[in-house]
Write a structure and sequence with these properties.
Helix content is about 25%, strand content about 25%. The chain has helices spanning about 5, 55-60, 85-100, 115-130, 160-170, 185-190, 210-215, 215-230, 250-255; strands spanning about 15, 25, 35-40, 65, 80-85, 105-110, 135-140, 140-145, 150, 175-180, 200, 240-245, 260-265, 275-285, 285-295, 295. It has an eleven-stranded mixed beta sheet, with helices on both faces. Strands 1-5-4-3-2 form a five-stranded mixed beta sheet.
């Protein structure tokens, strides 16, 4: 795929060099660059990728994508420099195009909430497997394909390039479902912007990660972005399901965002008008409960 083709997904502010260059791979770590790669010079928590653009070029990168302007004369570029407005959005869009939009080939479920994301994805994994599907799971502990560990997780939700590459690998191995833990950091940093979700699950919100989000409202708004991604007009999945824990006092605010989606209100209280659970027994041997879903009890 050429740079010109990839730039259809992420228009550039400025390009210095040829756009007809062939791109063989995408990288965001300059140490992993091999000849023919495109390198995303992304600022990070520990270092700035722009500081490592020279290393990427020395390793064979043919394109650097950055929010910075191309180096001015008399600097001589060995590759093409692409300046973009937002490096995170560009990485997400370019990665999705390069790997053939993998989320479009699977039933994608995103789970967000302060607590319970891992448990929820593992329960769904068991349900999908028992139903004859082939689940891919990505989250806090590890990433798995059909019960087989692929890799230990670095973050709850991968950076967009790594996530898209993972989803493409799982798609190519026959995954029917992608079950993603989606952190507030990932939503704030545009890591899942290119994912087309079939369903989004909001579990709860408690005071956490305020070192990053600063306020509880900002934290909630980051979580709410998952519902925006589900409901956006260019997500052609159908039906689209927003499952919201109405035991949480903020859940009702998300129904306004779920335009065009079926909303399922779940929980343990009377506010859960669609799916309600009741624990009937809990001891060292396990937990028993009844579930009522829209008039039927199981």
């Amino acid at each position: 795929m050429t740079l010109a083709e990839l730039l259809r997904a992420a228009p550039a502010r400025r390009v210095a060099g040829s756009v007809d260059v062939q791109i063989d791979g995408l990288r965001h770590d300059s140490r992993e660059v091999v000849p023919g790669d495109l390198f995303f010079a992304m600022p990070g928590a520990k270092t700035d990728g722009n500081r490592h653009a020279k290393q990427a070029l020395d390793n064979g990168a043919v394109v650097i994508v950055s929010e910075l302007e191309p180096p001015p004369p008399p600097a001589v570029m060995r590759g093409t420099w692409v300046q973009v407005e937002d490096i995170a959005e560009s990485m997400s869009a370019v990665s999705d195009l390069f790997y053939g939009h993998p989320s479009g080939s699977m039933t994608m479920v995103g789970v967000t909430g302060t607590n319970g994301k891992t448990t929820t994805t593992y329960l769904m994994e068991a349900i999908v497997s028992a139903s004859g599907g082939r689940p891919a799971v990505a989250g806090t502990i590890e990433n798995r394909m059909n019960g087989r560990r692929i890799e230990k997780s670095v973050n709850t939700t991968h950076i967009s390039l790594a996530l898209t590459k993972l989803l493409a690998k799982c798609r190519d191995e026959g995954a029917t479902h992608g079950l993603l833990e989606v952190s507030s950091h990932a939503l704030a940093l545009n890591r899942v912007e290119a994912v087309d979700f079939d369903a989004a699950i909001f579990l709860n919100l408690t005071r956490d990660h305020l070192d990053f989000h600063k306020t509880v409202d900002a934290y909630f708004n980051a979580k709410a972005r998952l519902i925006d991604l589900l409901a956006r007009a260019d997500n052609q999945k159908s039906p689209k399901i927003a499952a919201l824990n109405f035991d949480d006092p903020r859940a009702h605010l998300l129904t306004k965002k779920a335009v065009g989606c079926e909303v399922i209100k779940f929980g343990l209280t009377d506010a859960a008008t669609d799916l309600r659970g009741k624990i009937t027994k809990a001891d060292l041997n396990g937990t028993e409960f009844r579930v009522s879903f829209r008039g039927k009890t199981y």
